[in-house]
Amino acid sequence: MAKKNEELDPETLALINWCIEVEGFLVAGGATLDQAQEHIEEQVEWFTDQFYDGLTPEQAAKAALSD
């Protein structure tokens, strides 16, 4: 995890914000906040691929919930 005094590059910040949005859609789909966070952490590579493939947070959450 980045130290507080380190600045994140814009791409990393965009990915983090995208994951935060995905988290909200996972919760809206029935997951608890803890479950959503844990799932994103466990599947970080998959979610990163979805981000770079251009999926919206809602599309990525729907895909994750359908598995």
What are the key terms here?
single chain, 0% strand
Task: Describe the SSE topology.
Blueprint: H1 10-28, H2 33-42, H3 44-52, H4 57-66
- Mean of residue pLDDT values: 93
- Number-wise, the strands total 0
Distance between the termini: 28 Å
Q: Sheet bearing the most strands, described?
A: none
Low-pLDDT runs: none
Secondary-structure-based class equals mainly alpha
How many helices? The count is: 4
Q: Which descriptor suits the 3D outline?
A: globular
Helicity range of the residues?
over 70%
Beta-strand content estimate: under 5%
* Helix and strand pattern: HHHH
State Rg.
12 Å
Notes on the protein architecture:
With 67 residues, this protein is mainly alpha-helical. Helix content is 72%, strand content 0%. It contains 4 helices and no strands. The protein has helices at residues 10-28, 33-42, 44-52, 57-66. α1 (10-28) packs across α2 (33-42) and α1 (10-28) packs across α4 (57-66). The longest helix has 19 residues, at 10-28. The chain is globular, with a radius of gyration of 12 Å. The mean pLDDT is 93.
Question: Short summary of the structure?
Answer:
Helix 1 packs across helix 4. It is built from four helices and no strands.
